From TrEMBL:
Pfam families, alphabetized: ABC2_membrane_5
Keywords attached to this entry: Membrane, Transmembrane, Transmembrane helix
Protein name: ABC-2 family transporter protein
Keyword Membrane: yes
Keyword Transmembrane on entry: yes
Transmembrane segments: 28-46, 52-74, 101-125, 131-156, 163-185, 205-224
């Protein structure tokens, strides 16, 4: 990638950030600070279960915001009516798509780091803290990257409202398939228990494999989105 392409990607990422904050920068700050609010509430809680509950809520909010980033950006882009500007942005379509994926990855990394900070403030780990924190951070990052990669091509292919419906339908279908396998296939329960025991003993290896799979899915998603956007009439 040459210097011109880097400038185009940077410019497109800045535009996507403006679209993210199209409803007001205060709304972005609310999303960013909400996990820290759960941290404060957890610190004020009197028992360990309450603290764990708020810790899970903080991590969940971080992951949910990062996962929903494609939906937020695309919805704000459509509602503001400035999607036609994509045709006059001084950046190629490839670099526009690359910028949006780069923006998603940056937000996912920041969300994973925020989740780790929230847990440091709330919990005391039995294992070495670095190992546990890296594991949780990789889990949040991989999950957000996986969901975002599934959603992104839909928002390039369909209008935002239709893409949201297709996205939730796809995620719901994956959940139903997973539940059906666990409920009606006898071997799946055995495999789940084996995976759980392997996770406790080989957490780093398993999370590394999951992270690699998430990156490969993101790469495939990028290629699909780029193909759709290259043939899309602006």
């Amino acid at each position: 990638m040459n210097a011109v392409s880097l400038v185009q990607v940077k410019r497109s990422m800045r535009i996507d950030f403006l679209r993210l904050s199209a409803t007001g920068k205060s709304s972005v700050w609310v999303i960013v600070l909400m996990p820290l609010l759960f941290v404060v509430m957890g610190m004020l809680g009197g028992d360990e279960m309450t603290t764990f509950g708020f810790a899970g809520s903080a991590v969940g909010v971080c992951g949910m915001f990062a996962s929903m980033l494609p939906m937020i950006v695309a919805s704000n882009e459509e509602m503001s009516g400035n999607s036609s500007m994509n045709g006059i942005i001084p950046a190629t379509r490839l670099n526009q798509v690359l910028a949006r994926y780069a923006f998603m990855i940056v937000v996912d990394i920041l969300a994973a780091l925020e989740a780790m900070v929230c847990l440091v403030l709330l919990l005391h780990f039995d294992e070495p803290p670095v190992t546990s924190l890296i594991g949780i951070g990789l889990s949040v990052l991989s999950a957000a990257l996986f969901v975002g990669s599934l959603l992104m091509p839909l928002f390039y292919r369909f209008p935002a409202t239709q893409a949201i419906g297709w996205g939730f339908g796809l995620l719901g279908l994956l959940c139903l398939v997973g539940f059906g396998l666990y409920r009606f296939v006898p071997q799946s329960a055995f495999l789940a228990s084996k995976t759980s025991s392997l996770f406790t003993t080989h957490m780093g290896l398993i999370l590394g494999i999951v992270a690699i799979v998430a990156v490969l899915i993101c790469l495939c998603s990028f290629l699909i989105s780029n193909r759709i956007y290259a043939n899309k009439e602006l």
